[in-house]
Request: fold
Amino acid sequence: MEITPFVLAFGKSLLFALAAILPIINPLASAPVFIEMTQHLDQPTRVMLARRIGQHVIVLLVGAMLVGSYVLHFFGISLPIVRVAGGLVVASVAWRMLGTQQVTGDDQTQMAQSVSESNVRIRAFYPLTFPLTCGPGSIAVAITVGASLHTPRVTESLVNFSGGLVAVVLVGALVGLTFRYAARLLGPLGDVGQIVFLRLMAFLLLCIGVQIVWDGVSALLATLPA
Reply:
């Protein structure tokens, strides 16, 4: 049995999944959001939170890639519906971020004292993992990638999915590392620069949410009879 075709298939699937998913995730663009929503936490807790977000991203993308299309088909849910619902959530979170005022030191202390281990776990998944980091667009892309990796040959499909899963792990690791060192990456901007950058990213996130909703609505309208 030749090894080279399988190696090529593995590499091609890895690059294909990485190129499709990473631009949608874009952890550097989400880093200011992570800083804003975790500014009242101490550094060890933020490190743990970043690691959990990276792990949750891997789980979500792997699940979407492997069984996402089957789950949606079982419940009779189409991808346009997922886009509309997820886009509304993303737009809602971005709108609240645009109107958020900077909290004072006393407010930060009070919020830090109210944080518990269970609260950190909840925040790690919603809204920091879903929908802010790994939103409906990322999940839809992962489902599409998973469908593209299927082939009639079982061995070839296994090799393709192996490459796709490695790409997902790399994306999750990159998310965790970016969020862990987000303060250092954005430190040169200064306090005012970070506030401005956060507002710009919030507006961009709002635009992304509206775009996701529009894509879903357009796909739904296209299914209507003439």
User: Anything to note?
Assistant: The chain has a mean pLDDT of 80. The first helix runs from residue 4 to 25.
